[in-house]
């Protein structure tokens, strides 16, 4: 195929596994050097076992943050992430469970506060997607599950975290290019990302008087385990080919946007979304 960007591949279950991907994602760009932008900050990152979440964790580690890393059940990938952030010099803790359960969200926050006393940065990144050609073929259970994982968990975790955040804190939500341009086979996923974008803007206004900034990052096609576990081999082989840059992005190319929004460099930035999508112009 002239527009092939990746070797054809598919994984039979979600969440995908990073170790089964070829090539594996790039999590730290060669030459990236931390400069203490998050020194001593306590950051909670969801979906941190692999993909964008792992890249954010590694960059935060290099910037000096303490890390609480939440994931579903990808234990091998999560152990790898923990090893990498500790190798980068970070103190970190892992939490496995379903963020669609309010009790788990509360458990994470309680554990983080017990260990570090407060939360400075909350990164709501966990998500799932299920391609379906026709709206009539989307089961009610799938629609509710996608919203529970992608959107409701964000509400529950943020609600639990806010009492432990102070002025100067930052909340960063992972939305998507699909919130702006749609996707014909990701109807429920795109709807959640639209909700996340609106939630981000509204919450930013709500928390401005408390000195807590709220922003989002809207990735385009990024090479993560979610991709081969979501799409068929042919779609994976052409992943990202329709961007102006003609390729998918790597997690290492998204994570610095999270660093910027988490640190004081973005002290006058709230209610905004950074578009890391290979050159697609949206929301213009």
UniProtKB/TrEMBL annotation:
PANTHER family: NADPH-DEPENDENT ALDEHYDE REDUCTASE 1, CHLOROPLASTIC (PTHR48107:SF16), NADPH-DEPENDENT ALDEHYDE REDUCTASE-LIKE PROTEIN, CHLOROPLASTIC-RELATED (PTHR48107). Pfam families: adh_short_C2. Belongs to the short-chain dehydrogenases/reductases (SDR) family. PROSITE patterns: ADH_SHORT. This is SDR family oxidoreductase. Signal peptide: none annotated. Keywords: Oxidoreductase. Residues 1-26 are annotated as: Disordered. It comes from the Bacteria. Residues 1-12 have a biased composition (Polar residues).
